[in-house]
Amino acid sequence: MRISFIGSGRVAHHFAKQLSKQHQIVQIYSRDLTHAQKLAEQCHAQAIQNYSQFDHNIDLLMIAISDQAIAEVIVNMGRYFENVLIVHTSGSTHLNVLSQQHARSGVFYPLQTFSLERDIDWSNTPLFVEATQVDDLQILVALANSLSNRVYTYDSAQRLSLHLAAVFACNFSNYCYDMAKQVVDAEQVDFSLLYPLILETANKATLNNPKTMQTGPAMRGDQNILNMHMKMLAEAGRGDLKQVYEILSQGIQTRQSSQ
Amino acid sequence: MRISFIGSGRVAHHFAKQLSKQHQIVQIYSRDLTHAQKLAEQCHAQAIQNYSQFDHNIDLLMIAISDQAIAEVIVNMGRYFENVLIVHTSGSTHLNVLSQQHARSGVFYPLQTFSLERDIDWSNTPLFVEATQVDDLQILVALANSLSNRVYTYDSAQRLSLHLAAVFACNFSNYCYDMAKQVVDAEQVDFSLLYPLILETANKATLNNPKTMQTGPAMRGDQNILNMHMKMLAEAGRGDLKQVYEILSQGIQTRQSSQ
């Protein structure tokens, strides 16, 4: 396949380098030409900065830029690639952001943390593909299968739910660790004492349903401890943590009393 | 040392069995005599059910019962052991629950999950000791050192803060996993896709300060994504999860803008 990229950031970087092993990377577009050139050199492509330089003779255009910029790019650039399949690589952008502007639209989303320094284990990276047209979906599935053993054809609602779930499972759990550290720091207690419990809790969630693994005073309905903890937080001037404690404890109790 | 126990549950069970290797376990008291007998047999002790049978000729009395019952037990039984060092084994009960009633009081708390089926790795189990009298603290430190390489003399405020922090770091992070699973389950998306992110997040929190490891839309201040997520939760009829999302996102943003 002949593939071009809009964007030369981390996602474009890793995709272009890996895809260049089996496909021809034609052009890398970036508003910052130096940035585009850096990547283009590594995958024998042409770096460009002007729409007038677009080569339409490609099979796939990958838009790998920040979520907010996708809508504007498809409006301004989509018409240069009228009969070309265009995909974005975002986990949190609906397919219709492209498909409202362009007939042959799709999504090619890798569930992975990218940094420029580290190589990606592509074969184990889940890839989520979606397309408005069945033929295009087959093209994307084939391309995904050439990269990874874990290819999923999920629709936008599913992909977006995964992204939302990751906020709960990762961003919010990390904030729970951060709140825990604030609590022990205030009493000069060593946060590392909690490491075994943190790792064990995470590990158990991958072996069993987290609902059935729930422990703690809220789960047990131990109102004495719940009251003591909220009093401790209030007296420490941490009304913010008290509010979180109260709402999450209520959530656990409601959840445990459900089916 | 001559040691007796009030209680014959999981904590008493593991302590009595381990201590019996180096010390004499004298009596096991339980309201349920059969239960006391089961443990007493394993550590060559006498099982009792009546206060009149108490043998006062001991060096240490360990109260290993539920948190709520400790206050009542020390009022009713403490006078039978007037000159004896009495400790409780609770992470969430202040020393003064004992010391208000009894002169020689202490705490001997293991930070560990106990189940009857599994053996405890005592040498790596953090033990927290505390006592009202300096001589008694030395006795408890020596006893703790004979069990574990990780002995801490923390006061009650410190011990209680550790317990409160564990609620945030473990109980609440597990509830975050549970909420994540509810989000993906509603869209027939495989929760196991999140396992690598869950494990990586927990692992990173043991290597770096969780505050600096924070990621996600709240951390980035990406209001478009925050709004989209809250709209998704509202439209799915999950006002409860929306409330959690909003409060934790606000918490992350406030935290990141602090020093």
UniProtKB/TrEMBL annotation, chains A, B:
Pfam families: DUF2520, F420_oxidored. Residues 126-250 form the DUF2520 domain. One of its GO terms (molecular function) is oxidoreductase activity. Residues 2-87 form the Pyrroline-5-carboxylate reductase catalytic N-terminal domain. InterPro entries: 6-PGluconate_DH-like_C_sf, DUF2520, NAD(P)-bd_dom_sf, P5C_Rdtase_cat_N, TM1727-like_C_sf. Signal peptide: none annotated. Keywords: Oxidoreductase. This is DUF2520 domain-containing protein.
